[in-house]
Every structure is written in C-alpha cells, then in structure tokens.
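Page 42, continued from yesterday. The earlier attempt failed because a stray header line got pasted into the input along with the sequence. Redoing it now with the clean sequence only.
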Amino acid sequence: GERGLKHLADQLHREILERERGAVKQLQKEMIGTKLDKGRASVVAEALIGGFDQPAERRIVEGEVDRNVEAKLVFETGDGDLELTLHGLEVLLEGGEPAFLEGTGAGINTVAFSRDGRRLYAGAVDGTVRIWDLARRSQERLLVRKGFGVNRLVLGGHGTDGIARWVAYGTVNGLTRVISAENGEELAGFAVDRGPVLSLVLDHAGRRLARGDGQGHIMLIDTATWRVEHDFQAALRGPIWALAFSRDDQMILAGGIENIVYAWPLDIVTQLVPMRDSSPAFLRDPALMGNGERQFARKCSICHALGPESGRKAGPTLHGIFGRRAGSLPGYGYSETLAESELVWTEDTIDRLFDLGPDHYIPGSKMPMQRITGAGDRRDLVEFLKRATAR
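This time it went through. Structure tokens are written below.
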C-alpha cells in the first residue's frame, strides 16, 4: 500500500528534465500520498522543479490505476510534459514491510527486474550475476562469475511470454558481455580498453544496445547480429555516466560530467562531431563575459546557436534574427503558435519576450518559462544579440 509506493519512490533517481535559465534542471519525484479502494489505487506525486538561479516550483498530480497496469502521472513542464511511469503495482498494493535479500557476499552495483516482477537480476563487485526468486526471497541461481566487478546490466531478447532470453552486463575493466539468461553461456563479447563501462541501456524495441565508458565513448550494438553499428567519442571530456533512447528510438541521449544532456539522431550519428569542440558557454567563468553575453549564456545558449551553422539544438539558430518573422526559419519544427504568428523579432519584441516571459508573451510556444526582470540586463542581452547574430 502506501509503504510500498513510497518505497518505490525512494528508489527513483533524480533525472535530467528540462533546460531553462542556462542550467539543466533536475526533477525530484516524491510520492506524498496513496489511497486504496477495492483494488484501485489513487497515487499522488509531487515534482520539485528548479534551476540553478531560481527558486524551485512544486507541482502536484494525481492518477488512478488498477492493480495490474502501470500508473502514469503527467507533469506539465512548460516545454512538453514529463510522464512518470510506476511499474509493479500488483506487488506494491499488497503492502507489507520491505524485504531484504541476503547472502550475496559482495556489494551490489546494479539490478534489473524481470517483466513479470518475479525475479531480480543483480550484478556485484565480485563479478557475479545472480538471479533471485522474489516470491521465495531466495537466490535462484548464480548465472555467471567472471572476476571483474559488474557495473551495469540489462535484460533483453524478450519473447511473447515476456521472459528475457539474454542478459548484457558491463564491467569495471571495460568488458561488455552478453550471456544466456537461462544458463549463463556467453553469446557475445566486446572488449575495449577505455576504462569501465558506466552506462548500459537497451532501446524500447530491443534492437539496439548502447554502452558508455569512462573515456566518453558510446558504442551502439545491433542485438540481432551482435555487431557494432557505431562506436564514437561523445563527450568533450570525462565519462558517459548516463544513456537513454528517445521514446521513438530515433535518438540517443547522453550525460557526463558537464551539466548538460546531449542527443544524437541515430540516422546521421556518424556524420556528427563529438559533443562540442569547446565547453558550452554557460560553463565558462561568468566573470570573463560581458553582461549581455552572460545573459545569453544563462538564458539562451543551451537551445540556440548564434551562427549560420546551427547544428542540432532544441531551438533554431538566432543568426539573422533581427527583422525575421517568428516561426519562419526553414527546417525547424515550430509550434503552431509561432508558425502562425505575425510577430517580427526586433529590439522591442525581444525585450518584451524576456520582460513578460514566453508563457505570457507568446503562450503555447515551445520556449521554456523564464524572465529577465532587470531592464539593464535585457538591454545588454539585446545589444549582444545584435552584434553576435548579424549576417
């Protein structure tokens, strides 16, 4: 019941959510209430959303679900919605105290649940992968022991019965192995001397496995042939801590030591350069910038480029923006609000955009909610943009 849902909430990681005010925002999700009624659950969740230079905002949503289906709670973020999905409610709604699985003999680095919620796969620092029977709260079998600590594991190859056919895991010495989920027999292996495997994820269709390593590379593996599709340097510096596929499996997203998430369209990933050839503007020392450039770095630089070659960013390039009708740059998918707008970008309209905030000045656009309240700061930003975006 309530304990079970709160226990699940305690395990949810902070996620990179939304880009606003020059910082990647974090979402902290917390279950703050539940109610059970004849096999249904009413789940209330609270989101704490905030940027580095603004107070956090609290949003609360509520959803009802049956025992055997997923709970989907949707937070409106101002630039698209975040959908939080809770799995395994049949077990959670039965309530009871948290259970502890003992006898591993080593620290656990990574776990994965079977789709039916009956088994738990655990990778440990001693190089073992074990399967636990959750109904009996006991170890079902030792699947593999290789000696090098297991950092990440994922389950794949699910049939129509929902049972995983293979387990992929990455180790501290840079190995990625794919083994049979039934007997531990090795099906494929990828050895690269680039530090530990720090992230491992399967796309939603189960067709691609992505791994990120300690030296900032991403490897994409075809799970039908177990061949490497792409292997490229993704990070400017440091490791790839986190990977995720977009919902349609058309993009791979990566996070590292910089406070920014990068995304690559998979159909042209080989044509793209690493994350950047220099640090993002908002990572530079603000003391080395003029005030106008500093405002751009904080408010605009994540989503917008200044030059004619815009690359792949969340928003269109600002090159030549003065005198341009809003929503008119070819090749960018504008919101209906901007595409049908008669607004022309001038010194005055850009000033008003940040004075009122996009949600009030042009409600319905994709631009995140943000303001620049100081008239002098807005004036400096406009003057910087006039110089930096000139044709």
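Notes: Residues 375-388 form the longest helix (14 residues).
Reminder to self: strip header lines before submitting.
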